[in-house]
């Protein structure tokens, strides 16, 4: 396998260990500076150049994209994807995880534990938002930040107001998050590769510091995770669209709560703490996957005219409740059920004999018109607003807003 490791820091521990692990297993690994690529586009021929030389023969790419170059870095990764090169993490997954708000929005609808969080813009909404997450103390986070940078603890409501006002005056977007007191300055870092947690450590903050990041002086210890924590870490990684990730979780009274899913997790802390060859696990996973490159399923499936991917929701009292998937006759309507979502459970490729329950969601591929027919008529009417003529008194001149 010929592997490209995208990194701006060839001498850092993580990059060196990944390169060493790949070469130790007989693979050809090259470290390429992410911003030294040029992206060429023409009809039917996506190309990449590195230092003015055309890229042609890589089997796989392992992105190590820093926060400061997210836009350009994900553009390079996306170009590799369009060239059908296997990417350990896709551009879509990296973007999902890099934005704290977006990642929490994705996790919140999949029954994954997260600290109660709110996002506001108006100053008048700050106090009600703090109350909704449970009152002070609260954690205030910049939407983009790594290694504990941009994470602040406000002990009182007054402190929280002052911090938020200051950050917003600097054009920073912030999240207000419930402080999970029982975590006591501790968190779990689970290193996920594919569908496994290959290593885990508990990080403990020192002194008055509430952030447990190793970069902030936290001390790490090896830990064996309970099944609930393993499942949460793997599912969070998959929901983000990642295959290699560091998942940070708080140990709350209600179970694991996700703080962050990191698409470029460092190796030094976890390898030193656990004594495990995490870099080797990453390389072996990539080598096993190169014949099955990650693709954008929705994009590929929706190129067929009239066909697409959509969700069918089964509400209380729906005609499908109590029926098996076969009895719904979806297949006869040219609709295939890809995945069944039931509460916190994800059931891929469900058997035709599986009985449906209220509040199930079916991820389906098939004729879009047929799937629209599964939506109640009242809902369909709401989705298709009538277009009326403009009122006679509408003034067309002197508009102040910018037109599209």
UniProtKB/TrEMBL annotation:
Pfam families: RimK, Rimk_N, TrkA_C. GO terms for cellular component: ribosome. The keyword Protein biosynthesis applies. Its cofactor is Mn(2+); Mg(2+). Residues 296-380 form the RCK C-terminal domain. Keywords: ATP-binding, Ligase, Magnesium, Manganese, Metal-binding, Nucleotide-binding, Protein biosynthesis, Ribonucleoprotein, Ribosomal protein. Residues 104-287 form the ATP-grasp domain. This is 30S ribosomal protein S6--L-glutamate ligase.
